[in-house]
Amino acid sequence: MKYRFKMYKGDEIKYIGHLDLLVAFQRVIKRANLPIEYSNGFNPHQQVSFASPLSLGLTSLAEYGDFELTEDLDTKEVMDRLNEHMPDGLKILSLTKLKEGVKNTMASVCAASYDIYFDETISPEDIKNNLSSFINQNEILVMKKTKKNFKETDIKPDILGAEDISADGKGVLKVLVNAGSVKNLKPESVAEGFCMFINKEYNRYKTAFRRNEMYMKNSEEKLVPLTDGVGEN
Predict the structure, then answer these.
(1) Which pLDDT score is estimated for 37?
(2) Which end of the chain has the smaller Cβ count within 10 Å, N or C?
């Protein structure tokens, strides 16, 4: 039986990388004594997969993944057993029993939304006065890292939406971007591009990011969360 989880990743564990997070999750499954399915072959591994990896230092309200059990267990029981053994900063928010034929999260995800929390050098007025002009440029060029070096890239086609959500005197930008194995834009690139546009220095280490949701396309080609329409009736 296959299950899909939605998980919170907080500040306590935001500097744990993707592979270490996967190992931690696999250990939680063992400690919860769940009947996890293993792959065949000389080096069997748990049938667990995550959707789009989260960059180091980011928090998230919506980390998704799938796993397979050898028994058909109640979703609440499984979720409770997992959360009992989760380290600080990780929590399963929901668990869905998948119906037959559903693609895994990695193959399904195509977009993600993020909040970008700028430091004090980027004011709410900076965002309010410049966001429209920034988004309406013919192209938005930033330096993106490739396998060999850095390359100037137009990220505008991968920005699906942007909204000013500044509050309490702090500049905050919400963005919807392409994500997944086909097209993928990190929110760090959007933040850097905006800072360049308003001629202010971008400080990656003073800018905070949170992933809010990940999306796939439904039968009507509309973006929906990764748990929409995938569960058993």
Answers:
(1) 95
(2) C
Query: What's the rounded Cα separation, in Å, for the pair 178 and 200?
Result: 25
CA of 20: how far to CAs of 16, 54, 62, 106, in Å?
A: 6, 12, 18, 18
With 0-12 / 13-18 / 19 or more C-beta atoms within 10 angstroms meaning exposed / middle / buried, residue 50 is buried
51, 56, 60, 66: CA torsion to nearest 10: 20
Q: Which amino acid is at 39?
A: S
**pLDDT of amino acid 143:** 84
Distance separating alpha carbons of residues 106 and 47, to the nearest angstrom = 13
User: pTM of the prediction?
Assistant: 0.93
pLDDT of residue 233: 64
Cα separation of 180 and 215, whole Å?
A: 10
Query: What are the tokens at 202?
Result: 């971008």
